[in-house]
Amino acid sequence: MNLLHLYDRPAVYLVVAALLLAVGLYGLIRRRTFIGMLIAGELIFSAASLNIMALNHFLAPDPSTGQIFVLFIMGLAAAEVAIALSIIIAVYRNYRSIRSTELSELNG
Amino acid sequence: MTTFPFSDYIITGIFCLVVATTVAGALVAALSTRIIRGVTGLMICCLGLAGLYYFLNSPFLALMEILIYVGAVCVTIIFGVMLAEPDEPAGSESRSHYLLWGGLALLVSAVVFATVASLSLHGPWAAPAERVTDGSIRAIGLSLLTTYSMAFELISLVLFVAIIGALVIARAGRTKE
Question: Is the pTM here over 0.90, yes or no?
Answer without folding.
Answer: no
